[in-house]
Amino acid sequence: VMPWLVTRAGSPDAMLAHVRSLLGKPYLAVIAPPAVPAPESVLNAYLAARERARSLWAAQEAQIRSLVQDNPALSKAKFRPKTVESGLVAVDAWLRTAQSNSPPPDAVSKFGTGSLEQGTNKGQPVPSHPFFQAVDDLMSGYANWQQTLEALYRHLLLSLRDWATQAMAERKRDLRLQSFDDLLTRLQAALRDSVGDGLAESVRRRYPAALIDEFQDTDPVQYDIFRRIYGRAAEPVFLVGDPKQAIYGFRGADVFAYLQARQDAVNRYALDANWRSCAPLVAAVNRLFSRVGNAFVVPEIAFSPVRAASKDPPRLRIDGEPAGALEIWFLGLNDKGKPRAIGAILSLAFAATADEIARLLHLGRSGRA
Q1: With pLDDT > 70 as the criterion, what percentage of the chain qualifies?
Q2: What is the pTM of this model?
Protein backbone atom coordinates (compact mmCIF):
# COMPACT_ATOMS: atom_id res chain seq x y z
CA VAL A 1 0.00 0.00 0.00
CA MET A 2 2.64 2.52 1.02
CA PRO A 3 4.66 2.34 -2.24
CA TRP A 4 1.43 2.89 -4.18
CA LEU A 5 0.50 5.91 -2.04
CA VAL A 6 3.98 7.40 -2.50
CA THR A 7 3.68 7.01 -6.28
CA ARG A 8 0.11 8.34 -6.28
CA ALA A 9 1.08 11.40 -4.25
CA GLY A 10 3.87 12.30 -6.65
CA SER A 11 5.67 14.78 -4.41
CA PRO A 12 5.07 16.91 -1.30
CA ASP A 13 4.43 19.93 -3.53
CA ALA A 14 1.82 17.99 -5.51
CA MET A 15 0.03 16.95 -2.32
CA LEU A 16 0.15 20.50 -0.98
CA ALA A 17 -1.45 21.74 -4.19
CA HIS A 18 -4.44 19.48 -3.46
CA VAL A 19 -5.04 20.87 0.05
CA ARG A 20 -3.79 24.45 -0.25
CA SER A 21 -7.22 25.84 -1.12
CA LEU A 22 -8.68 24.18 2.02
CA LEU A 23 -6.32 25.91 4.44
CA GLY A 24 -7.33 29.06 6.31
CA LYS A 25 -11.05 28.36 5.81
CA PRO A 26 -12.46 27.16 9.13
CA TYR A 27 -16.02 27.51 7.83
CA LEU A 28 -15.60 24.66 5.37
CA ALA A 29 -17.57 21.55 6.24
CA VAL A 30 -15.30 18.69 5.24
CA ILE A 31 -17.19 15.50 4.43
CA ALA A 32 -14.88 12.64 5.29
CA PRO A 33 -14.68 9.77 2.79
CA PRO A 34 -16.37 6.52 3.81
CA ALA A 35 -14.43 4.17 6.03
CA VAL A 36 -11.96 2.03 4.13
CA PRO A 37 -12.13 -1.77 4.51
CA ALA A 38 -8.97 -3.53 5.58
CA PRO A 39 -6.66 -3.24 2.54
CA GLU A 40 -5.18 -6.67 3.18
CA SER A 41 -8.57 -8.39 2.93
CA VAL A 42 -9.44 -6.59 -0.31
CA LEU A 43 -6.07 -7.42 -1.84
CA ASN A 44 -6.30 -11.04 -0.72
CA ALA A 45 -9.74 -11.35 -2.32
CA TYR A 46 -8.33 -10.09 -5.61
CA LEU A 47 -5.32 -12.40 -5.43
CA ALA A 48 -7.57 -15.37 -4.63
CA ALA A 49 -9.77 -14.63 -7.66
CA ARG A 50 -6.70 -14.34 -9.84
CA GLU A 51 -5.30 -17.60 -8.51
CA ARG A 52 -8.55 -19.38 -9.34
CA ALA A 53 -8.43 -18.03 -12.89
CA ARG A 54 -4.78 -19.06 -13.15
CA SER A 55 -5.58 -22.63 -11.99
CA LEU A 56 -8.47 -23.02 -14.41
CA TRP A 57 -6.37 -21.70 -17.29
CA ALA A 58 -3.46 -24.02 -16.47
CA ALA A 59 -5.71 -27.08 -16.25
CA GLN A 60 -8.16 -26.39 -19.10
CA GLU A 61 -6.48 -23.94 -21.47
CA ALA A 62 -7.29 -25.99 -24.59
CA GLN A 63 -10.99 -26.24 -23.71
CA ILE A 64 -11.21 -22.51 -22.93
CA ARG A 65 -9.52 -21.64 -26.23
CA SER A 66 -11.91 -23.85 -28.19
CA LEU A 67 -14.90 -21.98 -26.76
CA VAL A 68 -13.76 -18.57 -28.04
CA GLN A 69 -11.67 -19.35 -31.13
CA ASP A 70 -13.71 -19.57 -34.35
CA ASN A 71 -16.91 -20.13 -32.38
CA PRO A 72 -19.84 -19.57 -34.80
CA ALA A 73 -22.02 -18.46 -31.88
CA LEU A 74 -19.80 -15.39 -31.34
CA SER A 75 -20.11 -12.24 -33.43
CA LYS A 76 -17.18 -11.90 -35.82
CA ALA A 77 -17.46 -8.13 -35.46
CA LYS A 78 -16.95 -8.26 -31.69
CA PHE A 79 -14.70 -11.34 -31.56
CA ARG A 80 -12.42 -11.01 -34.55
CA PRO A 81 -10.11 -14.04 -34.86
CA LYS A 82 -6.92 -11.98 -34.74
CA THR A 83 -8.16 -9.98 -31.74
CA VAL A 84 -9.20 -13.16 -29.92
CA GLU A 85 -5.82 -14.78 -30.57
CA SER A 86 -3.82 -11.76 -29.42
CA GLY A 87 -6.06 -11.50 -26.35
CA LEU A 88 -5.49 -15.12 -25.43
CA VAL A 89 -1.74 -14.64 -25.79
CA ALA A 90 -1.94 -11.66 -23.41
CA VAL A 91 -4.06 -13.64 -20.94
CA ASP A 92 -1.64 -16.56 -21.01
CA ALA A 93 1.40 -14.37 -20.50
CA TRP A 94 -0.16 -12.44 -17.61
CA LEU A 95 -1.56 -15.45 -15.76
CA ARG A 96 1.80 -17.21 -15.99
CA THR A 97 3.97 -14.30 -14.92
CA ALA A 98 1.80 -11.86 -12.92
CA GLN A 99 3.34 -10.95 -9.60
CA SER A 100 1.85 -9.47 -6.44
CA ASN A 101 -0.99 -7.03 -7.23
CA SER A 102 -0.11 -6.29 -10.87
CA PRO A 103 -3.09 -5.06 -12.93
CA PRO A 104 -4.73 -7.37 -15.46
CA PRO A 105 -4.27 -6.34 -19.11
CA ASP A 106 -7.32 -4.98 -20.91
CA ALA A 107 -7.56 -8.18 -22.96
CA VAL A 108 -8.54 -10.21 -19.88
CA SER A 109 -11.97 -8.55 -19.52
CA LYS A 110 -12.77 -9.67 -23.11
CA PHE A 111 -13.25 -13.20 -21.77
CA GLY A 112 -15.63 -12.38 -18.92
CA THR A 113 -19.27 -13.53 -18.95
CA GLY A 114 -20.64 -10.05 -19.62
CA SER A 115 -18.43 -9.53 -22.66
CA LEU A 116 -19.29 -12.96 -24.02
CA GLU A 117 -23.01 -12.39 -23.55
CA GLN A 118 -22.83 -9.12 -25.49
CA GLY A 119 -20.76 -10.75 -28.23
CA THR A 120 -22.99 -13.79 -28.76
CA ASN A 121 -25.18 -13.82 -31.85
CA LYS A 122 -28.92 -13.66 -31.25
CA GLY A 123 -30.43 -17.07 -30.65
CA GLN A 124 -27.06 -18.75 -30.08
CA PRO A 125 -25.84 -20.29 -26.80
CA VAL A 126 -23.45 -18.15 -24.78
CA PRO A 127 -20.07 -19.88 -24.27
CA SER A 128 -19.94 -21.17 -20.70
CA HIS A 129 -17.01 -22.18 -18.55
CA PRO A 130 -15.96 -21.55 -14.90
CA PHE A 131 -12.96 -19.62 -16.24
CA PHE A 132 -15.21 -16.90 -17.67
CA GLN A 133 -16.82 -16.34 -14.27
CA ALA A 134 -13.37 -16.40 -12.69
CA VAL A 135 -12.39 -13.56 -15.05
CA ASP A 136 -15.39 -11.54 -13.83
CA ASP A 137 -14.37 -12.18 -10.23
CA LEU A 138 -10.75 -11.15 -10.73
CA MET A 139 -11.72 -8.00 -12.66
CA SER A 140 -14.21 -7.08 -9.92
CA GLY A 141 -11.59 -7.84 -7.28
CA TYR A 142 -9.03 -5.63 -8.98
CA ALA A 143 -11.56 -2.78 -9.29
CA ASN A 144 -12.31 -3.07 -5.56
CA TRP A 145 -8.59 -3.00 -4.82
CA GLN A 146 -8.10 0.18 -6.87
CA GLN A 147 -11.10 1.83 -5.21
CA THR A 148 -9.67 0.95 -1.81
CA LEU A 149 -6.32 2.50 -2.69
CA GLU A 150 -7.99 5.69 -3.95
CA ALA A 151 -10.05 5.88 -0.76
CA LEU A 152 -6.86 5.54 1.29
CA TYR A 153 -5.35 8.38 -0.73
CA ARG A 154 -8.36 10.61 -0.03
CA HIS A 155 -8.04 9.87 3.68
CA LEU A 156 -4.35 10.71 3.42
CA LEU A 157 -5.16 14.10 1.88
CA LEU A 158 -7.72 14.79 4.61
CA SER A 159 -5.14 13.96 7.27
CA LEU A 160 -2.65 16.21 5.51
CA ARG A 161 -5.15 19.06 5.56
CA ASP A 162 -5.71 18.65 9.31
CA TRP A 163 -1.99 18.34 10.01
CA ALA A 164 -1.08 21.33 7.83
CA THR A 165 -3.73 23.49 9.53
CA GLN A 166 -2.31 22.71 12.96
CA ALA A 167 1.34 22.85 11.89
CA MET A 168 0.86 26.20 10.13
CA ALA A 169 -0.74 27.70 13.24
CA GLU A 170 2.11 26.45 15.42
CA ARG A 171 4.76 27.69 13.00
CA LYS A 172 3.25 31.18 12.82
CA ARG A 173 2.93 31.31 16.59
CA ASP A 174 6.58 30.39 17.02
CA LEU A 175 7.63 33.03 14.47
CA ARG A 176 5.18 35.58 15.88
CA LEU A 177 3.50 36.04 12.53
CA GLN A 178 -0.11 36.70 11.58
CA SER A 179 -1.70 36.45 8.16
CA PHE A 180 -4.73 38.33 6.90
CA ASP A 181 -6.81 35.22 7.54
CA ASP A 182 -5.54 35.10 11.13
CA LEU A 183 -6.73 38.67 11.75
CA LEU A 184 -10.20 37.70 10.58
CA THR A 185 -10.50 34.36 12.37
CA ARG A 186 -9.17 35.77 15.66
CA LEU A 187 -11.57 38.71 15.51
CA GLN A 188 -14.41 36.31 14.79
CA ALA A 189 -13.36 34.14 17.75
CA ALA A 190 -13.21 37.19 20.03
CA LEU A 191 -16.68 38.32 18.95
CA ARG A 192 -18.01 34.85 19.74
CA ASP A 193 -16.32 34.86 23.15
CA SER A 194 -17.72 36.16 26.43
CA VAL A 195 -16.20 39.58 25.66
CA GLY A 196 -17.86 39.65 22.23
CA ASP A 197 -20.69 42.06 23.08
CA GLY A 198 -18.30 44.60 24.54
CA LEU A 199 -15.94 44.29 21.58
CA ALA A 200 -18.80 44.78 19.12
CA GLU A 201 -19.97 47.86 21.01
CA SER A 202 -16.44 49.28 20.95
CA VAL A 203 -16.22 48.81 17.17
CA ARG A 204 -19.64 50.45 16.65
CA ARG A 205 -18.61 53.48 18.70
CA ARG A 206 -15.55 53.87 16.51
CA TYR A 207 -17.46 53.19 13.26
CA PRO A 208 -21.07 54.32 13.85
CA ALA A 209 -21.94 53.66 10.20
CA ALA A 210 -20.58 51.15 7.71
CA LEU A 211 -20.71 50.81 3.95
CA ILE A 212 -19.23 47.58 2.63
CA ASP A 213 -18.72 47.74 -1.12
CA GLU A 214 -18.08 44.70 -3.37
CA PHE A 215 -19.88 42.63 -0.77
CA GLN A 216 -20.15 39.70 -3.16
CA ASP A 217 -16.47 39.00 -2.40
CA THR A 218 -17.26 38.39 1.28
CA ASP A 219 -16.67 34.96 2.77
CA PRO A 220 -18.59 33.42 5.72
CA VAL A 221 -15.98 34.50 8.30
CA GLN A 222 -16.16 38.13 7.22
CA TYR A 223 -19.94 38.17 7.13
CA ASP A 224 -20.15 36.62 10.59
CA ILE A 225 -17.96 39.49 11.86
CA PHE A 226 -20.18 42.13 10.24
CA ARG A 227 -23.35 40.44 11.51
CA ARG A 228 -22.10 40.21 15.10
CA ILE A 229 -21.05 43.87 15.12
CA TYR A 230 -24.03 45.46 13.33
CA GLY A 231 -26.68 42.75 13.06
CA ARG A 232 -28.65 43.58 16.23
CA ALA A 233 -27.72 47.27 16.51
CA ALA A 234 -29.40 50.46 15.34
CA GLU A 235 -26.33 51.82 13.53
CA PRO A 236 -26.76 51.97 9.76
CA VAL A 237 -24.88 49.45 7.64
CA PHE A 238 -25.06 49.14 3.85
CA LEU A 239 -23.95 46.07 1.90
CA VAL A 240 -23.36 46.79 -1.78
CA GLY A 241 -22.73 43.89 -4.13
CA ASP A 242 -23.78 41.86 -7.13
CA PRO A 243 -24.51 38.17 -6.51
CA LYS A 244 -23.71 37.33 -10.14
CA GLN A 245 -20.09 38.22 -9.38
CA ALA A 246 -19.99 35.94 -6.33
CA ILE A 247 -19.38 32.96 -8.60
CA TYR A 248 -15.75 34.01 -8.99
CA GLY A 249 -14.19 31.81 -6.33
CA PHE A 250 -10.64 32.95 -7.12
CA ARG A 251 -11.55 36.30 -5.52
CA GLY A 252 -12.48 34.58 -2.28
CA ALA A 253 -16.16 35.00 -3.00
CA ASP A 254 -18.80 32.82 -1.41
CA VAL A 255 -22.20 33.13 -3.04
CA PHE A 256 -23.96 31.54 -0.07
CA ALA A 257 -22.56 34.12 2.35
CA TYR A 258 -24.02 36.77 0.06
CA LEU A 259 -27.41 35.04 -0.04
CA GLN A 260 -27.46 34.72 3.75
CA ALA A 261 -26.73 38.44 4.10
CA ARG A 262 -29.48 39.31 1.64
CA GLN A 263 -31.91 37.19 3.61
CA ASP A 264 -30.90 38.92 6.85
CA ALA A 265 -31.21 42.43 5.37
CA VAL A 266 -34.15 44.54 6.52
CA ASN A 267 -34.38 46.47 3.24
CA ARG A 268 -33.23 45.59 -0.26
CA TYR A 269 -32.53 47.96 -3.11
CA ALA A 270 -31.64 47.28 -6.73
CA LEU A 271 -29.92 49.35 -9.40
CA ASP A 272 -32.05 49.07 -12.53
CA ALA A 273 -29.88 51.27 -14.77
CA ASN A 274 -26.56 50.37 -16.42
CA TRP A 275 -24.34 53.47 -16.51
CA ARG A 276 -21.40 51.88 -18.33
CA SER A 277 -22.77 50.22 -21.47
CA CYS A 278 -24.54 51.42 -24.57
CA ALA A 279 -28.22 50.65 -25.07
CA PRO A 280 -27.69 47.95 -27.77
CA LEU A 281 -25.32 46.01 -25.52
CA VAL A 282 -27.70 46.21 -22.57
CA ALA A 283 -30.54 45.02 -24.79
CA ALA A 284 -28.43 42.12 -26.09
CA VAL A 285 -27.47 40.98 -22.58
CA ASN A 286 -31.09 41.24 -21.44
CA ARG A 287 -32.21 39.11 -24.36
CA LEU A 288 -29.46 36.53 -23.91
CA PHE A 289 -30.02 35.87 -20.20
CA SER A 290 -33.81 36.16 -20.31
CA ARG A 291 -34.07 33.15 -22.62
CA VAL A 292 -33.46 30.64 -19.81
CA GLY A 293 -35.38 30.31 -16.59
CA ASN A 294 -32.44 29.77 -14.25
CA ALA A 295 -29.53 31.57 -15.90
CA PHE A 296 -27.25 31.49 -12.85
CA VAL A 297 -28.05 27.96 -11.61
CA VAL A 298 -28.62 29.05 -8.00
CA PRO A 299 -32.42 29.55 -7.74
CA GLU A 300 -32.08 32.51 -5.37
CA ILE A 301 -30.19 34.52 -8.01
CA ALA A 302 -32.60 35.59 -10.69
CA PHE A 303 -31.75 37.63 -13.76
CA SER A 304 -33.32 41.10 -13.68
CA PRO A 305 -33.33 43.04 -16.98
CA VAL A 306 -31.97 46.58 -16.71
CA ARG A 307 -32.08 49.69 -18.86
CA ALA A 308 -29.26 51.75 -20.27
CA ALA A 309 -28.89 54.99 -18.35
CA SER A 310 -27.63 56.80 -21.48
CA LYS A 311 -28.90 56.03 -24.95
CA ASP A 312 -26.06 57.61 -26.90
CA PRO A 313 -22.63 56.99 -25.34
CA PRO A 314 -19.65 56.84 -27.71
CA ARG A 315 -19.69 53.62 -29.70
CA LEU A 316 -17.07 51.76 -31.68
CA ARG A 317 -17.51 52.23 -35.41
CA ILE A 318 -15.77 50.32 -38.18
CA ASP A 319 -15.74 51.87 -41.65
CA GLY A 320 -18.37 54.28 -40.44
CA GLU A 321 -20.79 51.59 -39.27
CA PRO A 322 -21.52 50.75 -35.61
CA ALA A 323 -19.74 47.58 -34.53
CA GLY A 324 -21.86 44.74 -33.18
CA ALA A 325 -22.90 45.33 -29.60
CA LEU A 326 -22.35 41.68 -28.67
CA GLU A 327 -20.42 38.99 -30.52
CA ILE A 328 -20.37 35.29 -29.64
CA TRP A 329 -17.46 33.17 -30.79
CA PHE A 330 -17.96 29.43 -31.20
CA LEU A 331 -15.09 27.03 -30.73
CA GLY A 332 -15.54 23.94 -32.87
CA LEU A 333 -14.47 20.38 -32.25
CA ASN A 334 -10.92 19.21 -32.84
CA ASP A 335 -9.68 17.42 -35.95
CA LYS A 336 -11.02 14.11 -34.61
CA GLY A 337 -14.51 15.51 -34.08
CA LYS A 338 -14.18 15.52 -30.29
CA PRO A 339 -14.32 18.34 -27.70
CA ARG A 340 -10.99 20.11 -27.28
CA ALA A 341 -8.88 19.76 -24.15
CA ILE A 342 -8.92 22.69 -21.74
CA GLY A 343 -5.31 23.59 -22.57
CA ALA A 344 -6.10 23.82 -26.28
CA ILE A 345 -9.24 25.86 -25.55
CA LEU A 346 -7.28 28.39 -23.49
CA SER A 347 -4.56 28.70 -26.13
CA LEU A 348 -7.08 29.31 -28.90
CA ALA A 349 -9.05 31.79 -26.78
CA PHE A 350 -5.89 33.75 -25.90
CA ALA A 351 -4.74 33.82 -29.53
CA ALA A 352 -8.16 34.85 -30.85
CA THR A 353 -8.47 37.65 -28.29
CA ALA A 354 -5.00 38.95 -29.09
CA ASP A 355 -5.75 38.85 -32.83
CA GLU A 356 -8.99 40.78 -32.31
CA ILE A 357 -7.25 43.47 -30.25
CA ALA A 358 -4.52 43.78 -32.88
CA ARG A 359 -7.13 44.04 -35.63
CA LEU A 360 -9.00 46.84 -33.87
CA LEU A 361 -5.76 48.71 -33.14
CA HIS A 362 -4.81 48.47 -36.83
CA LEU A 363 -8.22 49.78 -37.88
CA GLY A 364 -7.88 52.63 -35.37
CA ARG A 365 -4.48 53.65 -36.73
CA SER A 366 -5.82 53.55 -40.29
CA GLY A 367 -8.75 55.76 -39.33
CA ARG A 368 -11.30 53.07 -40.08
CA ALA A 369 -12.30 52.62 -36.43
Answers
A1: 96
A2: 0.66
